[in-house]
Amino acid sequence: MKRWQLALVAASMLLPGAADARHRYHSASHAGYYTAASGHSVHRPIHSSSRPAGASARCRDGSWSFSESHRGTCSWHGGVAQWLR
Asked: b/e per residue, 40-76, with b = 16+ CB within 10 A?
């Protein structure tokens, strides 16, 4: 189990509603999407040689993010290299 997964499990035991967030994260992750704080389904960061449609930021590791907000964008990808919109 990865460190972030352990953190989610630990949080689900301590915080009310965290188990629901963990379930949403895992159920959406199978399709390459996650549920944003807004409730929208958002594509996970991907690696591509050209900018994919809908990308909102370029991460420092070269991946493209589709994040709806600045908070946490590219956090597992070295941070944001460039905002696109």
From this structure: eebbebeeeeeeeeebbbbbeeebbbbbeeeeebbee
**Does residue 66 contact residue 56 with C-beta atoms inside 8 Å?**
yes
Q: Of 35, 51, 76, whose CA–CA distance to 64 is shortest?
A: 51
**pLDDT tens for the chain, residues 1 to 85:** 566 555 655 555 555 554 444 444 444 444 789 888 899 999 999 999 999 999 999 999 999 999 999 999 999 999 999 999 7
User: For the chain, percent helix, then strand, then coil, each to nearest 5?
Assistant: 30, 20, 50
What is the pTM assigned to this prediction?
0.63
Q: Cα separation of 3 and 65, whole Å?
A: 21
Looking at the DSSP bridge assignments, the partners of residue 63 are 47
